[in-house]
Amino acid sequence: MLMQTHEARLDALRQELKRRGLDGFIVPISDEHMSEYVGAYAQRLQWLTGFGGSAGSAVVMQDKAAIFVDGRYTVQVRDQVDEKLFEHRSVPKDTIGGWIGEQAQQGARIGYDPWLHSRQWAQATAKAAAKAGAELVAVDSNPIDAVWQDQPEPSPAPAIVQDNALAGRSSPEKRAEIADWLKREGYDAAVISALDSVAWLLNIRGADVSHTPVALSYVIAHADGTAELFIASEKVTPELAQHLGNAVSVRERGSFASALGAMKGKSVAVDPNYGVDAITQLLEAGGARVSFERDPTILPRAIKNPVEQQGQRDAQARDGAAVARFLRWIEETAPSGEVDELAAAAKLREFREELGNLRDLSFDTISAAGPHAALPHYKVDEDSNIPIPPSSIYLVDSGGQYPAGTTDITRTVWVGPGEPTAEMKDRYTRVLKGHIQIARAVFPQGTSGGQLDGFARQYLWEAGVDYAHGTGHGVGSFLSVHEGPQRIAKPSGGQAGTEQELFAGMILSNEPGYYKQGHFGIRIENLVLVEKRAIEGAEGDYLGFETLTFVPIDRTLVEKDLLTESEIAWWNDYHAQVRAILAPQLEGEDLAWLERHCAPL
């Protein structure tokens, strides 16, 4: 009989730990590639606790347990995880290592799966546990897998070729670039374990992780330009084998560990963020010399080539037509009070699917009505779903995966009847002003995203308010919707990517927001492309942003008196471009709606 309750699952895990001589075990949301989104087989934390967020961890001891999430998930964890079973702990104030140090007894053995954690994390947590006299123990196999009776198998979907006509560069070209880097830095090989890095390097895609078109696999890239791909044999089609060619050896995914152990005497680069602890353990045990270096594919992957840039423009234009049709539908149907959040998300997907080339959503649609819009990472499900209230704000953050590009757009709209409050209009217009400042930003080469973040917040700060998330993240080309290393965010607090220099060709989101807990939330998001900017008399090279996303921005919520003449000019120019790009794709009432919403402000 399957274990239906989380209490029964927790008890079964404790029995398994006792059988293995372990006093505790750490359960992250992670896979063997340190992915942001993981396959169903790797959703161990959700199975154990019920928590459905995308970031978090739990620690299970024999007499107590705790779950650790950051501020994005404070409300969600309260709704989904029984506090009688798991203490709720807040990151970064509380840490796993600190909690273990407080709770563990002298001599306690705390297990962790080295395939799900980085070396740096393992070392820091082991040090914290040691202060309490406890030991962090790497397990040979995950104890949750031993008790999860109906655990899904990893996806058997075949890997597919990403044609050079969409990729813009061939895999041999990319491998040669990585080989040059290896030789320059004095390495024999690099372990490429991030799934989107493997996909980019070999020009392959897959369907193994929800919303991210990647195939479960590893690559060892060598300094002579050859590579070894470790992937389940059922994923390798004749077309894929032909595409990879003789310079890429295809080996069973299960042989990856033994290949790492056979690199005696080799100098090997491993990414400290994406290379799990087990990779380093196996390399060191086999006699390899390990150095921690950023994955050499990450920066060239982030700097989109001209073909990828055009693909993104094409994908955004098609996606924009679908979103515009959806916004017209919301405007006309939601005031009845009969449309709920799930129905709205399903309708938006339907409009995207009508395009004919949608491969997947790029993330779970944030369809947030009323007070739910005040939760920046709200995820609607059957339990949380509510009707969109008339006379309220509705926020929808969504995106699609298309062969030519990945989209991500947020629109916040007023649902009638009636008028929004003065406070709503003030906050919305301040968010809009910040969005415009990022869109119009001009900055010298060498500027980081962290240096631009204040541009978006300044008008909210003037009113004594702020938002708790970053202003922009990188976006992949038919890959991850959250792609590093670049981001626009406050440079304090150790935010990864905020110190990364921005280069022409990088794509970021531009998404300032405002959230009044329990009342309403606002976010306006477009994607932007970093481009070179010619300035007469400039002393040095300068950059700016090309906006890629073209969908009308809600005008009912705008307080025009707060906008400057130049901001109004930006609005009118932007909507003229929206009309030019979307009008040829729309007809009838959809086109008439577009015309109204693109009229000058």
TrEMBL record:
Regions annotated as coiled coil: none
Record keywords: Aminopeptidase, Hydrolase, Metal-binding, Protease
Enzyme class, spelled out: hydrolase
Domain Peptidase M24: 313-531
Annotated Creatinase N-terminal domain residues: 9-140
Single GO term (MF): aminopeptidase activity
E.C. no: 3.4.11.-
InterPro entries documented for this protein: Creatin/AminoP/Spt16_N, Creatinase/aminopeptidase-like, Creatinase_N, Pept_M24, Pept_M24B, Peptidase_M24_C, X-Pro_aminopeptidase_P
Xref: CDD domains: APP
Residues annotated as domain Peptidase M24 C-terminal: 542-601
Domain of life: Bacteria
UniProt similarity note: Belongs to the peptidase M24B family.
PANTHER family: XAA-PRO AMINOPEPTIDASE 1
Protein's name in the database: Aminopeptidase P family protein
Originating species: Altererythrobacter litoralis
